[in-house]
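To: structure subgroup
Subject: Chain for Friday's discussion

All,

I'm putting the inputs and outputs inline so they're searchable in the archive.
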Amino acid sequence: MDTFVINGGRPLRGTVRINGSKNAALPLMAAALLTDHPLTLQGVPDLADTRNMSRLLKRLGIDVTHTPPEDHQPSRLNLSPHDPTPTTAPYDIVRTMRAGICVLGPMLAKRRAARVSMPGGCAIGDRPVDLHLRGLRALGAEIHLEAGDIVATTPRGGQDPLQAAHVFLGGPNGSTVLGTANVLSAATLAQGTTIIEAAACEPEIIDLANLLRAMGARISGDGSPRITVEGVAELNGVDAYPVMPDRIEAGTYVMAAAITNGEVVLENFPLDSLTAALDRLAHIGIHVEEQGVRSKEQEVSQTKNASTSSQALAASSYPTVTVLSPRRLNPTQVTTQPHPGFPTDLQAQIMALLTLADGNAIITEKIFPDRFLHVAELLRMGANITRVGPSAMVTGTRELVGAPVMASDLRASAGLVLAGLAAQGTTTINRVYHLDRGYHKMEHTLQTLGADIQRVDDKDL
């Protein structure tokens, strides 16, 4: 099993280009199940989750070919449906990633039947799929559970298409991003006009809506809690649709620069998707300065009224920013919330940063209240953190010290890497396979910025 060995204390300096978004790419890839025509995505990140989604789509009758990036051109992922008969997403693949559930809505809408294993993913707390099923049932789906699988058909045992409805997707923790993606995708082929209330407002939902519009769907209101979908008879393919940059990767590298007191330039930076995170970082004293002026196409592509032309979207560009950090970090209060609030996927990273702030900070987790498994590992590195229910008080210390730690999930792993970069001495992080689900060769990226980090087999330690 792979382990990171980090010798900390080196300021990060250099330039990084932000990769395409994992959380956006997975529902975009699943959209290939909605059409009989080829779909090509640009900039899909090469990650464990996207590779597993490719495996899943192949099992579902989609030819998948990947062209690596070359000559400053983004990678291309070609998805060509060739067999519309498979309707089973098996346990051996779906268990590896939470987003495997994304194939349920598209497959049900197009093939009128779907059998999807209950999904896996990180151990960060309870994430039931009841809102997904509630939304699809509202569209007329007949659903039951059988041997750990979700078994669904369209009305009358698959004889009729899905029917439009007024769908409410709110839950005790707010809206559901993957549930919104599932219902939105399914509604594009439902008969009539569907209204989705309490829809997720995340940028990844806007990206999915942009792709579906480029395929011929009629969607309005994405980016707001109320999305309207006028069903169509069929959807077309799209050539060269660009995946949005990964806002979580971007936020992680901002904090990596900050915690090491470095200076890093980040290209392809999703500035407008990180407003809440950048607000908290500004309170801490981190400066994120945009370089130049963004193109008009980029401004258009990031709004809910973005052009449905894949060519126009491909022409868009995201800004370049420079991250500067002072030696003294201020404490602040952070509360994770659905977008446009502070992302729960950046909670572990900002906690690592605040362990070195000058004073007491409070972090409250409102999305996954149990998402604090990284606290015990940060304590091993000399952090001063007190957990009280869904909140943690972080009292800044003068320095962190290297120690052996264990990664529990994807974003906790990133937080421990940040702590290791800043710590005095050597930090070994076990079970870094979690990181490979969301960051493309993170150790290589950090090495280009001057970090002393190596990936080794723990048998060699």
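Points worth raising on Friday:
The first helix runs from residue 22 to 30.
DSSP finds 16 helices and 24 strands in the chain.

D.
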